[in-house]
Specification:
heterodimer, A: 271 residues, alpha/beta, two-stranded antiparallel sheet, 13 strands, B: mainly alpha, 2 domains, three-stranded antiparallel β-sheet, 8 helices, 4 strands
């Protein structure tokens, strides 16, 4: 089945999204629903999605599934109530720890990468998924490796694979994050694709970023998709059969024709 | 708790403590952290760093007193309801920056991003999409928090993304700004497409360049 192509949704971007849909460039959107979990907000999101009329996926950013203290006193009741009111294509969050105790840093951070740590993260995800048994598949996304940690024995993709193997989550593979690791750590992004089972990848992310003066490449979601990421998309589509491909563009909308050109290229790359 | 989970808990706490300190340095077990990226994480996390960064780009910003919540309640609605044409562009920028920097948590940074995005849309509107810009037209809502006439006629409209929940009376700086739904965003409503001078856009982008990667 041909994958759907989506843009990240923000209400302020309704017009570009509608334009892209009208041009046949997207047939879905990806919603970051974390701001809609408050009481009364779900109905607002439902209304907005109804007026757009596009299938949608949910991409959460705040569950911090790899926090070592996640299972201390988990309360996912609000999230469960929210999810009960929607029928997303799939829903996802990141394999990261963005929170420790009460401190939420609101940023994806790399994780300790050992088999034992992978088992902890998988245990978290198993508990999370058991508490939220949705019909829609749940996916986890690998994040960029901003740094490594002493004692790491697994590569970033091997850590991702280990968690996938031990948990009921599917894979959201972010090709730009692989590119970040290739630029910043010298890891072979194409080889990383081969490290994942073909059936595990349900969704792909495309994005662009920017380079710091140190040469470090930032996953900024603020630029055109780099040529290497397009090459990775072609490779990925030979190995995987994703249901959804999302162009993440969250900043710098001065180049709408460029964004539409990226969508056109993605559409033309689909099998 | 398994020994591994216990160790992870300690390491994560140490890492977060480092990032929570305004001048925090990477813990010893962190290898290869890019110094500029680390610095960005700190700047985004800490309002005082954010203010320093903005001051470098907007010297007049340094002279702005950090408004109290009461002042915000008093001044910002008045600012928003004055005749928009009388507001100068610099007022908009300084007002927005001062407003954002006064927020007690880094979510305020996102509000600047929203403004940047709206300016981007305004720029895009100057390109050959004049018929489509009409799609953005619409009546100004009664709850509009800010309307600003930009040079050239474009009207920027700032309001809560969730107008049914917005009111100044329920403004709670400790909670409301944690919700993306309460973030202010800016939409180009109507008027002739207009561009802010490139220097201002560059300044905004330079300040935005302090931000860390997206999520």
């Amino acid at each position: 089945m041909k994958p759907r192509l989506a843009l990240t949704y923000r209400e302020a971007l309704r017009w570009p999204i509608e334009q892209a849909a009208a041009r046949g460039l997207i047939d879905a959107i990806e919603v970051v629903p974390s701001g809609f979990l408050r009481e009364g907000q779900a109905s607002l999101l439902r209304r907005r999605l109804a007026t757009l009329g596009l299938p949608y996926s949910f991409h959460f950013i705040d569950q911090s599934l790899a926090s070592a203290d996640l299972l201390d006193q988990p309360d996912w009741s609000r999230l469960a109530a929210f999810l009960a009111g929607f029928e997303p294509l799939c829903w996802s969050d990141h394999l990261t720890a963005c929170r420790a105790g009460p401190l939420d840093l609101e940023v994806n951070l790399p994780l300790a990468a050992t088999p034992e740590a992978a088992a902890v993260y998988a245990e978290n995800i198993c508990a999370f998924r058991a508490a939220l048994p949705t019909a829609a598949p749940f996916l986890i996304e690998q994040v960029p490796t901003h740094w490594t940690q002493a004692g790491d024995t697994l590569s970033p993709i091997a850590l991702f694979r280990a968690v996938l193997d031990q948990s009921p989550a599917g894979a959201l593979l972010d090709l730009h994050n692989l590119y970040c690791d290739e630029v910043n750590l010298g890891l072979d992004a194409a080889a990383a694709l081969s490290a994942l089972p073909p059936e595990s990848v349900v969704e792909l992310h495309l994005a662009g970023g920017h380079r710091l003066e140190t040469g470090f490449w930032v996953d900024g979601h603020d630029g055109a998709v780099p040529p290497r990421v397009w090459a990775l998309l072609e490779l990925a589509l030979r190995r995987f059969s994703p249901r959804l491909i999302v162009l993440e563009r969250e900043h710098n909308f001065t180049d709408l024709p460029g964004i539409f050109a990226d969508l056109e290229r993605a559409r033309d790359t689909l099998p | 708790m398994t020994p591994c989970r216990e160790r992870l808990r300690a390491d994560q706490a140490a890492l977060f403590a480092a990032l929570a300190a305004p001048q925090g340095t990477p813990p010893a077990f962190v290898h290869g952290a890019d110094p500029v990226f680390w610095e960005r994480l700190l700047r985004v996390r800490h309002p005082e760093n954010l203010r320093d960064g903005l001051t470098a780009f907007f010297p007049r910003f340094a002279a702005l007193a950090r408004p109290t919540d009461a002042e915000l309640r008093r001044d910002w609605p008045a600012f928003s309801h004055q005749a928009p044409a009388a507001l100068r562009r610099q007022t908009l920028l300084e007002g927005a920056l001062g407003w954002a920097a006064a927020r007690p948590n880094p979510t305020a940074w996102t509000e600047l991003l929203w403004i940047e995005e709206a300016l981007g849309l305004a720029r895009a509107a100057a390109h050959p999409l004049p018929d489509q810009i009409d799609d953005l037209n619409g009546p100004l809502p009664a709850d509009a928090a800010l309307r600003v006439q930009l040079p050239g006629g474009a009207l920027l409209w700032c309001r809560s993304q969730s107008p049914e929940l917005w009111s100044w009376s329920d403004y709670d700086p400790d909670q409301s700004w944690l919700s993306a739904e309460r973030r202010v965003y800016v939409t180009v409503l109507h008027g002739e497409p207009a561009l802010l001078p490139a220097a201002d856009l560059r300044a905004l982008r330079l300040s935005l360049a302090l931000s860390a990667g997206a999520r």
